[in-house]
Amino acid sequence: MPIAGEVGVLINPTAGKGRAARIGDGVLARLAAAGVSARPIIGRDGDHAEHLARQAVRDGAGALIAVGGDGSVHLAAQALAGTDVPLGVVPAGTGNDVARYLALPRTDPLAAVEVILAGRTKRIDLARSGSRYFVTVLAAGFDAVVNERANAMSWPRGQMRYNLATLAELRTFQPLRYTLDLDGERVETEAMLVAVGNGTSFGGGLRITEGARLDDGLLDVVLVKPLSRLGLIRAYPGLFDGSVVEHPQFRRYRVRRATIAAAGIVSYADGERFGPLPLTVEAVPRALKVIA
């Protein structure tokens, strides 16, 4: 069904080193050519952009289109969760994992706009901690530390940034002591990382929660038990094809609610700083309508 009403176009001017800003003009032009009324939403920073997105939804936007990466989708999800307003995605960021989930064109922004104009929608789950939502994966261990370093790097772009950050952190990282509550089951363990997946991947296609589904009402909580540095390096390629799930040190739990505690870790979700542990995360079934 074609989009009805004015569309808000959330443009992250910094995503993809400015690529999203350049693409945004083309998105607006294509929507206008198709007879769709569109309003650009460009915030001074993330908080301001989220405020403007929420206001657009309150004002009756027919859809919200995120032009950027997973961070832009993350902002849009805060405004759209629990509403009937659909999210469209024009991938223009570094990771673009949500675009992978939705099988959207990731190298041709205008092709992604054509998907949006077709207007086919479905509902997917979200994960929530407190009042904040995420779409992809919550990283809460070695993966979070890598995210912290990667986000501080200005070069290179894309997956290689995460690869270099991984190699840098391998020099000093030690297993962490975790206490988990998984649907009431208490788990105390040492691990290299713990991740909570609503979707299957993060960091530009690292498939840490391979097999997670966006429509099952469950979270995939995975952990990797202690490995040597060499063992971690050998296991790392398995993140690209999902075979990491077959590693003997890999554990998976499918739950509706998880509490994760470990000292000194700041978690990341959708590639964005999310909050220090401990955190409680719960699945929110069918919370987000998406155009796919």
Automatic annotation (TrEMBL):
Q: Which PANTHER family match?
A: LIPID KINASE YEGS (PTHR12358:SF106), SPHINGOSINE KINASE (PTHR12358)
Known cofactor(s): Mg(2+)
This protein is called Diacylglycerol kinase
This protein's UniProt keywords: ATP-binding, Kinase, Lipid biosynthesis, Lipid metabolism, Magnesium, Metal-binding, Nucleotide-binding, Phospholipid biosynthesis, Phospholipid metabolism, Transferase
SUPFAM superfamilies in the record, alphabetically?
NAD kinase/diacylglycerol kinase-like (SSF111331)
Show where the Cyclic nucleotide-binding domain sits: 265-292
| Boundaries of every DAGKc domain copy | 2-133
Originating organism: Nocardioides dubius
Q: Which InterPro entries match?
A: ATP-NAD_kinase_N, cNMP-bd_dom, Diacylglycerol/lipid_kinase, Diacylglycerol_kinase_cat_dom, Lipid_Phosphate_FormReg, NAD/diacylglycerol_kinase_sf, YegS/DAGK_C
